[in-house]
Amino acid sequence: MKFAPLALAAALMVAGASYADAATRSVNTTGPKGNTVNRTGAASCSGGSCSSNSVVTGPRGKSATRSGTTSCSGGQCSGGATYTGPAGNSVKRSRGTSF
Question: How many domains are there within the chain?
Fold first, then answer.
């Protein structure tokens, strides 16, 4: 379950990049024991830059969030994201690529 925000945000980032608009998504998943997990997210792109945010809320009401940006220009892309867990601890990651 730790990587669900990352997967959702990546999917939203692609959707936002493809349409150069805002994209939102909300998904509720119910497991075999009746526990529900809610995933929500939004992404938008404009002028070579995309941003995305997502929240995953578990069956006990605790949430994990992801907030990130990616910018591309002249064959270079860079970006980063901040992941925050239910206890409030966070980690920042950055990335870059050339094409």
Answer: 1
